[in-house]
Amino acid sequence: MVFPRSSVQIAALCLTLFSSFIYFLSSGSSDPSSTTNLKNRIPGRYLYSPSLNTNIPLSESSPTAPSSNLPSVPIEEPPNDPIWDIQNATLGFQKIYAISMPSRTDKRDYLALMGLVSGLEIEFADGVNGSEMHPRSFPSYWKGTVALGDYGVWRAHMNVYQNMVQNRIQSALIIEDDADWDVLLRHQMVEFARGTRAIQNASLPMRSPYGDNWDLLALGHIGANNKPNKDQKYWVTQNDPTVIAESRRTWTRKPDVSTPKLAGDHTRIVMEISKFTGAAAYGLSLRGAATLLYDQALLPNAQAIDVAMLALCRHDPYGSPFCLGAYPMIFGRYRAIGPESKDSDRRASSNEAAAGSGGYQNSNERLQAESEFTVFSTSLNMWRLMKGEWVLPSCKPETDLQKEVNLSSFVFPRGQEVLVRPEEYRDFQMALAEQRKKDEVAKGQQAAKGEHAEVKKDGVKNVKRWVA
Ligand SMILES: *[C@@H]1O[C@H](CO)[C@@H](O)[C@H](O)[C@H]1NC(C)=O
Ligand SMILES: *[C@@H]1O[C@H](CO)[C@@H](O)[C@H](O)[C@H]1NC(C)=O
Ligand SMILES: *[C@@H]1O[C@H](CO)[C@@H](O)[C@H](O)[C@H]1NC(C)=O
Ligand SMILES: *[C@@H]1O[C@H](CO)[C@@H](O)[C@H](O)[C@H]1NC(C)=O
Q: pTM for the complete prediction?
C-alpha cells in the first residue's frame, strides 16, 4: 500500500488539531474530580506533540515498515537448524492465531499494530459468544460452574484446534487478544527453544525449532508448577533482564525453586509443567491439538479450557511431558486505558448477569495503559517502535534489572542445562517431613481408637476424569 504524502500531512494536521482540542478540554476543566469526563483526567503526556509525528518513517513511494528496527538475534547453531526459523514472522510456529471477538474491533486494532511493530503475522480466530451457541452443541457433561462465558471461551479455543486438525497445522502459537510481549521476544524464544530441546533430548534433524516431541508450550500463563518430586532437567537463564522481579509476581501458583540452582530474582527457567493457570498464550503441536479435541469433545471431560489443559499436563497421555513452559511467563497482558470492564468478554456473555449489564459491573477506570508481566513492553513502547527508536525503557524501572535496553548493542544472556534431584529442593523436603509427621500422628490416633487404618481417597469428586 502506498501512502501519498498528502494523506500523511493531513493525518499530522488532524493529530495536531485533535491534540489542541484535547488540550483545550483538559485545561478548561474546572472540576478535576469529575467522573463523567475521562478526557479531563488523562495526564497531559498522552497528547501527541505534532513534532513527534514528523518522524514516522514513511517515504513517498515505499513506506518503510516501522518494524525495520527489529534487533537481530545472534544464533550460533548450524544453518540447517530450524532454530533460525524463530526469526520468521510466526516465531518458528506454522501459524499464530489470536482469538478475539469480531465485535472487539478495538482489540483487533491493537493486535494489528502489535504484529506490525514486532514483524509477526497474526491470524484472527473468531471468539465465540456463549449465548449464541446452539444448545445441542454444548458439551453433554461439563465440570465446574456453568457460565456461558466459559463455554464461549472453550468453544473459541476448540475451533482453533479443529482448524489445526483439519488443515494439518503442525504447530501454532495461540494468543488471546490482550496479549502483550517484550520487544526482545525473539531473543526470549530462541533461549526458550534451547530449553525445550534440552528437556526433550532433541537432536538434529528436527522439524520444529522447539523440538519434535512436545504437545503444549505454556508461554503466557498466570502461574505454573514444576515437578520437584522427580529428577528434573531445567534450562536456567540467570540475569535475564526480561524477567519480572518477584515483587511483580502477584499470582499464587508458583514452582518450587527452593534450590540455589533455580533461584534468583531475574532467573527464567524452562521446565516440565505439572499444572498451570491461564491460557493467554501457548504453543500447541498438531498432536497437542488433536489430544485436546479428543479429550474435550469425545470424552466427557469438557471444562474451562485452561483447566482442561492443566488436566492433560498432569496426565502426560503420551508418556513424555505434555506441557513444557517458561517461568516466569514470556507473554504478558495489555491493559488499555479506560474502563476496566472492557478488559474481558468472558463475563460479558455470561448468563449470570442481566442482559446488557453482564461484564460491566466493574466500574474502575484506568488512567494509564499498563502491561502486566512484561519488562520492555511492546504495547507501552509502541510509539517509540513506530518512530524506529532503539533505546526503550522498561515498565517498572524500580524493580527491573535494567531500566532501558539498547536494541542495537544488547546481548541476551545464555542459559544452561541444570539437573535437579528431589533432595535438592529445601521446600519440598520440608513439606515431605511435615507430611510424614502428620501421617505418624494420624496413625497413632487411629491405633488409639482401635480403628482400621482406612485409606481415604483424596479429593472425592462426583465426576471422575476419564482417561483414554
Ligand atoms: C516459520 O518457521 C516455521 C518452522 O519452520 C514454518 O513452519 C513456518 O511456515 C514459517 N513461517 C513463515 C511465515 O515463514
Ligand atoms: C532424556 O534423557 C535422559 C537420560 O539421558 C532420560 O532420563 C530422559 O527421560 C530423557 N527425556 C526424554 C523426554 O526423552
Ligand atoms: C452475546 O450475545 C448476546 C445475545 O445475542 C448479546 O446480548 C451479548 O451482548 C453478546 N455478548 C458479547 C460479548 O458479544
Ligand atoms: C546504542 O548502541 C549503539 C551501538 O553500540 C550506540 O552507537 C548508541 O550510541 C547506543 N545508544 C545509546 C543511547 O546508548
A: 0.82
